[in-house]
Design brief:
The protein has helices at 3-28, 33-37, 39-70, 81-90, 97-112, 118-146. The chain has 149 residues and is mainly α. The protein is elongated.
Length: 149
């Protein structure tokens, strides 16, 4: 496999390992006003959001087309993203183009408009927490295409 692609997967593996730790802590916690009163919990949320954003960006910007190129499904980087998503859907790497678009929207909503109102912040964290397994599944499917066990 292409060493640059291998390096991208290696970096994502490291970020996922960090994100998994925060994700497990968030799953175990009751996220409410008391949760946010503890600065340690705020740090967990911030770490999770930061790593989720990094993963979504890296997978979208670096891995999707690179994996398709490695699989010889595309022969240039100039393929429009919608075509990339349709190919990924055909290969069953993503469930649907809408699923990827939803991940992107979740990421953008958190990155650009982190809510100040507590109930909106709780809802946003729950949304991104619910989206994490979807992102991880897509990554695992991408990885399996080029790094079979």
């Amino acid at each position: 496999m292409n060493p640059v692609l291998q390096a991208q997967f290696s970096l994502c593996d490291q970020i996922f390992a960090q994100c998994d730790l925060d994700y497990q802590l968030l799953l175990a916690a009751e996220i409410n006003a008391d949760f946010f009163a503890d600065y340690s919990n705020v740090r967990i949320v911030n770490s999770f959001l930061f790593n989720f954003n990094k993963l979504q960006d890296r997978i979208g910007a670096k891995l999707l087309k690179a994996v398709l190129y490695e699989l010889k499904e595309i022969d240039t980087d100039a393929v429009p993203m919608l075509d990339v998503l349709h190919l990924l859907e055909r290969l069953e790497i993503i469930d649907s183009t809408e699923a990827w678009d939803q991940l992107r929207e979740v990421r953008n909503a958190i990155a650009h408009d982190y809510p100040v109102v507590l109930h909106e912040r709780i809802a946003a964290i729950q949304l991104i927490r619910d989206s994490y397994p979807i992102l991880k599944t897509i990554y695992q499917r991408l990885r399996a295409q080029v790094l079979p066990d």
